[in-house]
Design brief:
- The complex is a heterotrimer of chains A (about 500), B (about 375) and C (about 240).
- Chain A has 2 domains: about 80 residues, Alpha-Beta Plaits, CATH 3.30.70; about 350 residues, Aldolase class I (TIM Barrel).
- Chain A contains 15 helices and 21 strands.
- In chain B, helix 1 packs antiparallel against helix 4 and helix 5 packs across helix 6.
- Helices cover about 25% and strands about 25% of the residues of chain B.
- Chain B has one domain: 4-Layer Sandwich (Glutamine Phosphoribosylpyrophosphate, subunit 1, domain 1).
- With about 240 residues, chain C is of the alpha/beta class.
- Chain C has 2 domains: about 90 residues; about 120 residues, Pectate Lyase C-like, CATH 2.160.20.60.
- Chain C has an 11-stranded mixed sheet, covered by helices on one side.
- The longest helix of chain C is centred in the C-terminal third of the chain and has 18 residues.
- Classes of the chains: A alpha/beta (about 500), B alpha+beta (about 375), C alpha/beta (about 240).
- Chains in contact: A-B, A-C.
- Chains A and C meet through helix 3, strand 5, helix 5 and helix 7 of A and helix 1 and strand 12 of C.
- Strand 5 of chain A pairs parallel with strand 12 of chain C, so a sheet runs across the interface.
Chain lengths: ~500, ~375, ~240
């Protein structure tokens, strides 16, 4: 069927400046630029990934949104009309990538942080100590000493040290390239934080980074062996993902090449299907059974994390997870990223991470079990201020996926599922993967975390505290602006203008 | 600001407390005889009066240990009431939850600079056996203190320990001391506080020391980690409704030492923990302990400027924050241990000292009553 | 090593086994087993474990090598994500057995429950095999991505297998000794007759199987087998639009 869909973007070439070097043609991985006597765009195929514009030595290319106007309709937006056309032409579920782009309220941007003036002093973070070190893992309620009060009798559950409370999100080898995985692993090791294999298994080239790697166990159990579980910083059971709560995943067979086949331990060319549920978990006691199956296999030496999507009943679910024996609860908000998800799910299912985090932390405190697990949160942590606010709401650390991809070069064009990523990130095509130099990408990731680390220290200093644990859960240091009372109540914060 | 009575505030007594937390600067002083010798209140008044300019007349108070030797097995409740109705309501509850052995007004003396005091009453109480089937005696008393403070409008428990009491109010500390006739009390530990609140005119209950059971805290500075310290304590049933960061210190000691049974030095370590860079250089066993304490007690770390003197029935502990943002001097003379915001406040009452030192940041000065002392 | 497991919690018992394996012990006999979970879980050595009594769930989870013989029925979750080894059950088993199993053999004398061999997969030489002598419940071989499942129906109970057989199947092969109603099949499954190669293949596994349980191989092989394979390795290729 011939498509009636208009182009989304226009590629504008300034032919006077263009010196026909064809670099744009070579760089465009979506076939949107050809060379026929001169550089000739095929607008329909452009995704606005900026690769051509970035690499044009003459600055001769600009990308604009197709100025084609639609008759105004607040209700029938151009996007909705285009989606209907697409489905009328195909009969398919609309697939998309990255996080939910829709204009739901962003609560981070309605919270403001406190600072010290006179009655308690701010601290200068550049010249005085400012501690960000965080340990992930279950903590006992108290520590016990022998009768002489000298030696420690309490044996702590395994703890994983973070030098900065920001870890890289689960992104599987398959969804992203091996070079991207290498960059994340190198940066995690250098910065004293963690990367996460996602559900695609661990490539053998990452063997020297395993003490900085979270290995995931998802419903497909790809590449999961006792060796995989034991070669890790910690093990994460993936129940759900913020971008697609309650549904499974399909890595299409064409992406399953030799290397991916090896890490996932499936034949080349077969679809890697992740079932929606873990079929050994149909109830909370089954989750406990899997948590302890992993603990038995790792001889109780690895913390076990359980990752869930933020859904309506997240607080009660998190409480159940902690009581089931998880050492860490990872909550992924509805704005979290994905390599591929049905748009209907990504854009309409789940709840914001800010509210989910606040509800979970408060619930665990009410039940007196907050110490039993660390809380990790992700789902659109965009900047260091979001990290500070998340920790003040009660998180132990934050998880960044999209931000780390952007640091490596991603332009958030939302076409990850096509496998054509021009930046060598969300692709398995060797000629594209080569574009991402893991060393340089690792430097960029380290720079990002270094910058955020400094910024978090600046904020701590202005708050007059010199250890991150004095911020953790200290909602007194946050105020809401422009939020309804109900949101303030859930967030557990006062409105700006109210003093102590 | 130097004249007594320059500010003669509309005192709001107890009902103000729900509205706001009151940050404050201050002077503190403490003294103890490790031999258990009783010293009358005039000495400590002299010491705290020396630091007059550190307070602004909006709060002063004292804690004294060993003052009720004849009733040392009973809980001595010092109560503040806004009005007779609050007293009646509280006594109605007392009848239900305690055996009241004796009650009387707390003796006071008309004093310039002290105006509009609340109704001050003290009770000697015992916890009835039949209430203690599923709860320890001290947990029970703690719960009742929290209950009265949060549920009875206009009533406030100023102190609730055995053989000890808090004497506090709005005014300069030396005036408060005379108002309460502290010369008539003899104690082996005295702590004192002069307050400089930056906020409301003050409330009698908001003066230091803050107490719970035997614990009393006088505090100079502000706890910048109050938000998380409060939420941490709430997990264990403490109700923090006095809106002052100082109460978290008293409750944290109660939780860590009495309920979690941490040795005093380890409790201190959790409140003013060493920095990671120092922990990393420790001997393995020490490192393991310090690491575990920071991992487990991150939420009880007191962050921000403070120096405190904590009193309890068996001793006195001085502590300042881990980067020493507030002053503290300690000194010894024979069996006497002194601590104060300024050395002059110690010299004022003990000119000839054996030893004077400034405790290091985050390092506690621990005074302990000799074991044979009752 | 012989362990009397009466009243023992799985944690010290499994630790005892792990420690003994590390010290070189090769054979274990566990008596009075009653519900202890994760037996053989995560073990990498080729040890033999004999179980007297009913073991708990997730027996052999993440297991990579041992041979476990169970002289009783077994429960749910046997051979969960198992990588290599052998589990022989002289009885019937519960639900969700062989979930995500990637290698090794699971031989069951009697019936199997619901959701047998979900997402079983193979990789190179690792071809997992599940054989059950009796019947099985619904969702037999759901999402199956590789390996071999054989269901014999020797006890004559009907139906031999429940509904949604091989739903979402995209790899591997299922052999069922008897007819399967078309309405019981998942829509991603193709139903075929056995060829000579199939007969050779199942013959070799069934010979081993019959030796364990004393069945007559000739009688077993004389049955009328149905072979189920996936219609496509990409069952959902056309479901999405970009």
């Amino acid at each position: 069927m011939e498509s009636q869909l208009p182009a989304e973007f226009m590629v504008n070439v300034d032919h006077e400046r263009c010196r026909r070097c064809k670099r744009c043609v070579i760089n465009c991985s979506f076939s949107a630029i050809e060379f026929k006597d001169k550089v000739t765009p095929n607008h329909r195929l452009c995704v606005a990934c900026h690769r051509c514009a970035t690499f044009c030595p003459e600055g001769a290319i600009t990308i604009t949104e197709n100025p084609l106007e639609y008759k105004y309709g607040y209700n029938w937006t151009p996007e909705i009309r285009k989606n209907i056309l697409k489905q009328a032409e195909s009969g398919g579920i609309i697939l998309t990538g990255m996080g939910n782009p829709r204009p739901y309220p962003i609560y981070w941007d309605h919270m403001l942080i406190d600072a010290c003036q006179v009655t308690n002093p701010s601290i200068d973070p550049l010249r005085e100590p400012m501690e960000l070190r965080t340990y992930l893992g279950a903590k006992p309620e108290c520590v016990e000493f022998d009768s002489e009060h000298i030696s420690l009798e309490t044996e702590l559950a395994p703890q994983v040290k973070l030098d900065i409370p920001v870890v890289f999100a689960a992104m599987s080898y398959g969804a992203i390239s091996l070079n991207a995985h290498k960059a994340l692993a190198m940066a995690a090791k250098r910065m004293g934080t963690l990367m996460n294999t996602g559900e695609g298994g661990l490539h053998e080239e990452l063997a020297s980074y395993t003490d900085r790697i979270i290995v995931q166990v998802a419903s497909g159990r790809f590449g999961v062996t006792s060796k995989y579980l034991n070669n890790s910083a910690l093990v994460e059971i993936k129940i759900g993902q913020g971008a697609k709560p309650g549904i499974g995943g399909h890595l299409p067979g064409e992406k399953v090449g030799e290397d991916i086949s090896k890490t996932r331990m499936i034949p080349v060319g077969t679809d890697a299907l992740s079932p929606a549920p873990h079929h050994d978990i149909y109830s909370i006691e089954d989750l406990s059974q899997l948590i302890y199956a992993i603990k038995e296999t790792t001889d109780y030496k690895k913390p076990v994390s359980v990752k869930i999507a933020a859904v309506h009943n997240v607080a009660a679910i998190a409480s159940g997870i902690v009581r089931a024996g998880a050492d860490i609860v990872m909550i992924d908000g509805f704005r979290g990223g994905t390599g591929a998800a049905p748009m209907v799910i990504r854009d309409h299912v789940g709840i914001p991470i800010e509210l989910a985090l606040a509800a979970v932390d408060e619930r665990l405190r009410q039940e007196g079990i907050r110490n039993r697990a660390s809380i990790l949160v992700g789902g659109s942590i965009r900047q260091s201020a979001d990290v500070v606010k998340a920790i003040a709401l009660g998180a132990d650390a934050c998880v960044i996926g999209t931000a780390s991809l952007i640091a490596m070069g991603c332009r958030v064009c939302q076409k990850c599922y096509t496998g054509n990523c021009a930046w060598g990130i969300a692709t398995q095509k060797p000629e594209l993967v080569r574009r991402l130099n893991p060393e340089i990408a690792a430097d960029r990731l380290c720079n990002l975390l270094t910058a955020w680390g400094h910024e978090i220290q600046e904020v701590l200093g202005s708050l007059g505290i010199n250890a991150i644990e004095s911020l953790r859960g200290s909602r007194e240091r946050l105020r809401g602006v422009g939020l309804p009372q109900e949101a303030l109540d859930i967030l557990g914060i006062k409105h700006a203008g109210i003093g102590q | 600001m130097k004249c007594d009575g320059l500010m003669n505030p509309e005192v709001s007594k107890t009902s103000e407390r729900v509205h706001q937390r009151i940050p404050s600067g201050c002077a503190i002083s403490g003294m103890m005889s490790e031999e258990g010798r009783r010293i009358d209140g005039r000495v400590i008044i002299k010491s705290i009066a020396c630091m007059h300019d550190r307070s602004n007349g909006l709060g002063g108070g004292f804690a004294a240990y060993g003052i009720y030797p004849k009733r040392k097995h009973q809980y001595a409740f010092h109560m503040m009431y806004d009005n007779v109705e609050a007293k009646e309501a509280t006594e109605e509850i007392f009848k239900d939850i305690f055996n009241v052995d004796m009650d009387e007004p707390i003796p006071t003396h008309r004093e310039n600079g002290i105006s509009n005091p609340p109704l001050l009453w003290r009770y000697f109480l015992e916890a009835p056996e039949n209430k203690l089937e599923f709860i320890s005696e001290r947990d029970y008393v703690m719960k009742m203190v929290m209950r009265i403070n949060s549920e009875v409008e206009g009533a406030f428990v100023a102190s609730s320990g055995k053989n000890m009491g808090a004497f506090k109010g709005v005014g300069y500390p030396e005036d408060i001391g005379k108002f309460y006739k502290l010369e008539d009390y003899s104690a082996y530990i005295w702590t004192a506080h002069g307050r400089f609140p930056t906020n409301t005119p003050g409330w009698w209950g908001g003066a230091h020391p803050f107490t719970l059971l035997d614990w009393s805290v006088v505090h100079n500075g502000e706890i910048s980690s109050y938000g998380i310290n409060k939420r941490y304590l709430e997990m264990y049933g403490y109700r923090l409704e006095l809106r002052t960061d100082t109460e978290v210190i008293a409750y944290l000691f109660d939780l860590l030492v009495r309920r979690h049974k941490l040795p005093i030095d380890k409790a201190v370590m959790s409140l003013a923990s060493p920095f990671w860079k120092d922990i990393d250089r420790m001997e393995p066993e020490q490192k393991k302990i310090a690491t575990a304490i920071r991992q487990v007690y991150g939420s009880s770390l007191l962050n921000g400027p403070f120096s405190i003197i904590l009193g309890h029935s068996r001793g006195m502990i001085g502590l300042n924050d881990r980067i020493k943002l507030r002053p503290m001097t300690a000194a010894r003379k024979d069996d006497m241990l002194y601590m104060a915001s300024e050395e002059s406040a110690i010299r004022e009452i003990a000119p000839d000292l054996d030893e004077v030192w400034s405790p290091r940041a985050g390092t506690a000065v621990i005074g302990t009553l000799k074991e044979e002392v009752e | 090593m012989r362990i009397d497991a009466k009243g023992m919690h799985y944690r010290p018992m499994n630790k005892m086994i792990r420690d003994a394996v590390a010290a070189g012990e090769k054979e274990f006999e566990l008596d009075n087993i009653g519900g202890q979970r994760y037996i053989g879980g995560g073990l990498n050595d080729s040890v033999k474990i004999t179980i007297n009594g009913t073991p708990g769930n997730d027996l052999g989870a993440f297991m990579n090598g041992p041979r476990i013989v169970i002289n009783a029925n077994a429960q749910d979750g046997i051979a969960n994500t198992m990588n290599a080894g052998e589990i022989i059950v002289h009885g019937s088993v519960g639900d969700i057995i062989g979930y995500g199993m990637r290698g090794g053999k699971l031989y069951i004398k009697g019936d199997a429950g619901y959701r047998v061999g979900i997402h079983m997969k193979e990789y190179k030489k690792q071809v997992p095999v599940i054989i059950a002598g009796g019947t099985a419940g619904d969702f037999f071989g759901e999402y199956m991505a590789g390996g071999i499942m054989i269901l014999l129906g020797m006890n004559g109970k009907s139906p031999i297998v429940g509904d949604y057989v091989g739903t979402g199947m995209h790899g591997g092969v299922i052999y069922i000794r008897g007819k399967v109603n078309p309405y019981s099949l998942g829509k991603e499954v193709n139903c075929l007759e056995l060829n000579e190669e199939d007969k050779k293949l199942i013959g070799s596994y069934l010979k081993e199987y019959c030796e364990h349980f004393g069945f007559d191989l000739v009688e077993v092989m004389s049955g009328n087998f149905t072979k189920l394979v996936p219609l496509s390795h990409r069952p959902y290729g056309n479901l999405y639009v970009y």
